[in-house]
Amino acid sequence: MPILPNAKKALKVSKRKAGFNAPIRSRLKTAVDSAKKTGDAPALSSAFSAIDKAIKAHLIHRKKGAHMKSQLAKNAGKPVEKAKTATKSASKAKAKKTVKKTTK
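Above: the chain sequence. Below: its structure as tokens.
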């Protein structure tokens, strides 16, 4: 716990800001994830709206928002395949096998 008065105030302010920012950040993440999974127009529209609101609330930088929008638009209509990620992790596990050297 903070001891100094200015530290107490800073803690109170940061808790208040976190309360305002948490729902916006949550909506942003769910909207972007659903747009990545489905790739249809309504999901993209809601994701773009959530990104714009997060930029307006200064949760993300405007250039990061532009990059997110660009990537969503680029991958529109291409749903993410979970099989690709599963095969990548399996191949990494196989590659990590090491051979023990014998000493004489």
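The chain has a mean pLDDT of 86.
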